[in-house]
Structure of Iron-sulfur cluster assembly accessory protein:
Amino acid sequence: MAQATPQATQPKKGILMSEAALKHVMALREKQGSDLCLRVGVRQGGCSGMSYMMDFEDPSRISEQDEVYDYDGFKVVCDRKSLLYLYGLMLDYSDALIGGGFQFTNPNASQTCGCGKSFGA
């Protein structure tokens, strides 16, 4: 009887990205500069109390206080304080004419605003 070999499991990512979001971010990065990472976080403000933030950043700015998730060589970075509110976040992208752009599906949000760019926890 053949024994099943344990499969290597990839570490879970605290910030998830759909294929469409990753493709769009990579295209935007090419316009900015090829060696940038994506920083995702939260800040106070917005319709529901906290708003999402995303921006490209030089990898040299990654600190020990950051969690880094690798997507085939592309790094997504989140500070640990923001990660308390974002762990499990799914970042998606749609090119629909109405309602298109980046969409955040956050399992930690107790409420979200109509624009989808802010939330309450």
